[in-house]
Amino acid sequence: MSDEVFYTGLVAIVGRPNVGKSTLLNRLVGQKVSIVSRKAQTTRHRITGVLTEGRQQFIFVDTPGFQTHHRNALNSTMNRTVNQVLAEVDVVMFLIEPGRFGPDDRKVLELLPREAKVVLVINKVDLEADKTKLLPFMEKMSAEFPFAEIVPVSAEKGHNVDQLLKALGKYLPEGEPLFGEDDITDRSERFLAAEFLREKLFRMIGEELPYGMTVEIEKFEVEGNLRRIFAAIIVDKASHKGIVIGKGGESLKRISSEARVELEKLFDGKVYLETWVKVKSGWADDERALKSLGYD
Questions:
Q1: Which pLDDT score, from 0 to 100, does residue 210 have?
Q2: CB atoms within 10 A of CB 22
Q3: For the whole model, what pTM was predicted?
Q4: Residue 16: its pLDDT value, please?
Q5: What is the pLDDT of residue 156?
């Protein structure tokens, strides 16, 4: 690799829901840019993270997990995003878990163009008790697709992530950097505020509520080092409103407080966050509502 040449490329992160795509993106970038939850369908948008190291710039695209269940307009939009990303990138990271390659994984693999440079990432290897099973599993997977590389990692613990970056770096094309050296995402602060609040909703009341909730930032003001954020939490049914608010407003206060603390870390400044709950029945199956809420 010449010292004078710069290498820049788009790297997609794909896989079935809940395989660790957002955790890996945050680990690679070195800071939280994509929300994380144990619930599937947490990532609904195309999130871009940026890492510049030496003469290389990796532009990571974290896609929603390809949806094979709960078919509605939201799922269709998410699947369309995955397909669009695959058509644009230079390298694809396909994430699976050790010893597990099920029908949902196969459906995602079948989307990948066979001529693409695909790096198979076996995530969560720290959870595999018997490490001797890993090599036979890698050999089995190599027969499924012409992978450019196979790299076992733990996104959660950071194990082998440097080796993954080395593997990906081989396939970046020559090109000028598209982002500044210190940039970590192309997403606006307004967008990140909505995502961080949505993460707290999923983490704290995800078991009680289905997927029919999202966040809309109605006003975002910056005054020096202070950000004033006014956010509506959108729910699908009137009965869900009380769950989000909680007894005496305690649930909503806790969700908002934890989101505010994380946003202050992200923005490195004070945050005033005001939240309330709105009912928009059927928003997840309404194309116009999805567009108004930023789902493209």
A1: 52
A2: 26
A3: 0.66
A4: 86
A5: 92
Collect all residues with Cβ–Cβ distance below 8 Å to 281 and sequence separation of at least 6. Answer: 236, 237
Average pLDDT over the chain, rounded to whole?
81
CA distance 205 to 2: 51
Q: What is the pLDDT of residue 86?
A: 67
Q: Which amino acid is at 45?
A: H
Report the distance separating Cα 14 and Cα 29, nearest Å.
16
What SS3 class is residue 102?
coil
Q: Is a pLDDT exceeding 80 seen at residue 5?
A: yes
Residue 293's pLDDT is what?
A: 43
Q: What is the spatial distance between Cα 203 and Cα 158, in angstroms, rounded to a whole number?
A: 22
> Distances from the Cα of 100 to the Cαs of 111, 187, 230, 256, in angstroms?
18, 33, 42, 37
Pick the closest to residue 64 from 92, 48, 44, 49 (CA basis): 44
Count the Cβ atoms, other than its own, within 10 Å of residue 216: 16
Going from the C-alpha of 16 to that of each of 56, 140, 172, 295, the distances in angstroms are 28, 19, 25, 19
> What phi, psi does 140 have (nearest 5°)?
-60, -45
Torsion sign over Cα 83, 106, 70, 45? negative
Q: What share of the chain is helix, strand, coil (3-state, %, to 5)?
A: 40, 25, 35
Spatial separation of the C-alpha atoms in residues 16 and 226, rounded to whole Å: 38
